[in-house]
Amino acid sequence: MALLAAILVLNASGCRDNENKRLAEMAERNLDRQAQQETRNTELQHQVAEGTKRLVEADASARETIVEIHRDVQAERQGLGAQRDRMEDERRQIAETRNRESIIAESIKAIGLLIACLVPLLIALQILRRSDTPDESAAVAELLLSDMVADRPTIVRIIDAPPKSFGDGASRITDRRDADQFT
Fold this sequence. Notes:
With 183 residues, the chain is mainly alpha-helical. The protein is 81% helix and 4% strand. The protein is built from four helices and two strands, in the order αααββα. The protein has a two-stranded antiparallel sheet. The protein is rod-shaped.
C-alpha cells in the first residue's frame, strides 16, 4: 500500500513522463506480484487449514483405532487369561487323576500280593481241616465190609455160581439189582 501511495504521489508531482510511466509500470507489476503472493498466501493458508483439518481428523481416527485395538487387546488378554485358567484346572485334574491312578494301581498290586500270599495258607487250612474229619471213603469201605461179612448182605451179594462170561469159576460181586436179575 505504501508503494502504491508513493507511485501516485510521484505521478501527481509531475516527474518525467517516461520515468513516471516506468515507475508506474513497476509499481503496477509490484502490485500484481503482491496481489498474486497474497492470493498464493491465502491459498496456502487455506491448504494449510485444510491439511490441519485432515490431520486432526486423521489423528482422531487414529486415536479411535488405537482405543479399539486397545479394547481388542484387553479382550484377548482376558480370553487368554480364561484359557490359561482352564488349562491350569485341566492340568491339576490330570495330576490328581495320575496320583489317584498310581494309588489305585499300588492298591491293586498290594491286594494281588495279599491274595497270592493267602492262597497257600487257605490250601493248608483246607488240608488241615480235612485231616481232622474222618475220611468218607474209609466209612464207605467199612460199611461195605460189614455188609459183605453179614449173614444176609443187603448191599452186596456174593454169587457162587460162575458167570458165563468169566469161565474161570471165580465168584462175582454185584450190587442188589444185579443179584435180583439172577434169582
